[in-house]
Design goal:
The chain is an all-alpha fold and 342 residues long. It has one domain. It has twelve helices and two strands, in the order H-H-H-H-E-E-H-H-H-H-H-H-H-H.
Length: 342
C-alpha cells in the first residue's frame, strides 16, 4: 500500500495534473493567440507546402509548461503531507522545473520578437547562444554550490561510471546542455514531431528513475509531468496542428531532457535515446559544411540532403508528415527500449 501511495503521488499525480491542466487550457489559450494574431510566419527556405501553415498560432509551449508547473505545485504540496520517502528530493524537483522554465523564457523572448515585432528570425544566433550559456552556467553553479553536481557519467550498455575531474566535467556539461537544447529546437519542424519524440524520451527517464535500485522520485515526478503535459499538447499539436509550441516550448523541452539526464548521471545515454535529436543536428552540420566546402572548391555549393534538418529531407523524398513523425517516434522507442534493457 505504501508503495502504491508513493507511485500515486510521485508519478500518477504529476502526470494527471499536467495532462488535465494542459487539456483545459488548450482551447482558450489557442483562441487567445488567434485574437492577438500571434501566428507563425513560415520561412520561405522550407518546403513550399508548409506555407499553408502560415498564421498558425505559436508560443503554444506555454500550454504544456503551465501543466507541468501546476503538476510541480500539486506534487510538492501533496508530498508534504503524503508518504515520507528519502528518494523524493523536493528542491531537486523544483529546480528541474525552474531551470527548464528559464530556457523556456529565452524561447518566449525569441517567439515574441518573431510574432509581435515581426522579425521572423527572432533573436540572433549569438544572442540566443549567450542567453542559453548564461542560464546553463547559473544552473551548474547552483548544482555545485548545493553539492548536487556529480561528475560521474554512466557509460551506456557496459554500465561503467566514468568520474571526470570537475575542471573537465563543467565545460563538458555546459556543451551538452546548450547542444541538446538546440538539437530539440531543430527537431521541432513538423506537426507533433518534437512532442512525440520527447514523450518517449521522458518515458525512458521515468522508467529508469521509478523502478530498480536507483529510485529518484524527483526525476520520475518531473518526467511524468512532462509526459502528461505533452500528451495533452499533442491533441492540439498533432497533424494538422492547431498550434505550434514555438521556441518557447522546444527550448523548455530541450532543457527538460538534458536536466533529467544530468540529474541521473545518464548524459551519455542521450546519444541512443535522443538519437533523433542528434540526427537532426548532424544533418544540418553536414549539409552546411559540405555546401561551404564544395562552394570553395568548385565554385558551386552542393548538398548531401535535399533539405535539412533531416525531417525535411524525408518530406522532399515524398514522405508525409504523419509518416515521418510515426517513424521517428518508433525509432526513438526502439532505442529507448534497447538502452533500458541492455
Amino acid at each position: 500500500m505504501a508503495l502504491f501511495t508513493t507511485i500515486g503521488v510521485h508519478i500518477l499525480l504529476p502526470l494527471l495534473v499536467a495532462f488535465a491542466v494542459a487539456v483545459m487550457l488548450g482551447p482558450s489559450f489557442i483562441n487567445w493567440l488567434h485574437k492577438l494574431k500571434y501566428g507563425q510566419e513560415i520561412r520561405e527556405e522550407g518546403p513550399s507546402w508548409h506555407q499553408k501553415k502560415s498564421g498558425t498560432p505559436t508560443m503554444g509551449g506555454i500550454i504544456f509548461m503551465a501543466g507541468i508547473v501546476a503538476a510541480t505545485i500539486a506534487t510538492v504540496a501533496v508530498s508534504a503531507v503524503g508518504p515520507d520517502t528519502a528518494q523524493f528530493d523536493v528542491s531537486s524537483y523544483i529546480g528541474l522545473t525552474i531551470a527548464s522554465l528559464a530556457f523556456g523564457a529565452i524561447g518566449f523572448i525569441d517567439d515574441y520578437i518573431k510574432v509581435v515585432k515581426k522579425r521572423n528570425l527572432g533573436l540572433t544566433a549569438l544572442q540566443k547562444f549567450l542567453a542559453q550559456l548564461v542560464v546553463a552556467v547559473v544552473y551548474v553553479i547552483v548544482m555545485y554550490a548545493t553539492g548536487s553536481l556529480s561528475p560521474s557519467v554512466e557509460i551506456p550498455f557496459i554500465h561503467y561510471d566514468l568520474v571526470l575531474p570537475i575542471w573537465l566535467y563543467v565545460p563538458f556539461i555546459l556543451f551538452v546542455i546548450v547542444g541538446v537544447v538546440n538539437a530539440v529546437n531543430l527537431t521541432d519542424g513538423l506537426d507533433g514531431l518534437a512532442s512525440s519524440v520527447t514523450v518517449v524520451v521522458a518515458l525512458f527517464f521515468l522508467a529508469v528513475t521509478a523502478v530498480g535500485e536507483n529510485v529518484m522520485y524527483d526525476v520520475s515526478a518531473f518526467s511524468a509531468a512532462v509526459i502528461g503535459g505533452l500528451l495533452a499538447f499533442l491533441i492540439y499539436n498533432k497533424y494538422p496542428a492547431k498550434v505550434f509550441m514555438g521556441d518557447t516550448g522546444s527550448l523548455f523541452l530541450g532543457a527538460s531532457v538534458v536536466f533529467m539526464a544530468i540529474n541521473t548521471g545518464k548524459v551519455i545515454y542521450l546519444i541512443p535515446v535522443g538519437f533523433i535529436y542528434f540526427a537532426e543536428t548532424l544533418s544540418v552540420i553536414i549539409q552546411t559544411s559540405y555546401f561551404k566546402y564544395t562552394k570553395k572548391k568548385y565554385g558551386e555549393g552542393r548538398r548531401v540532403f535535399k533539405m535539412t534538418p533531416i525531417h525535411h529531407h524525408f518530406e522532399m523524398c515524398g514522405w508525409r508528415e504523419t509518416k515521418i513523425v510515426r517513424v521517428f517516434t518508433l525509432v526513438t522507442l526502439l532505442l529507448c527500449v534497447i538502452a533500458y534493457v541492455i
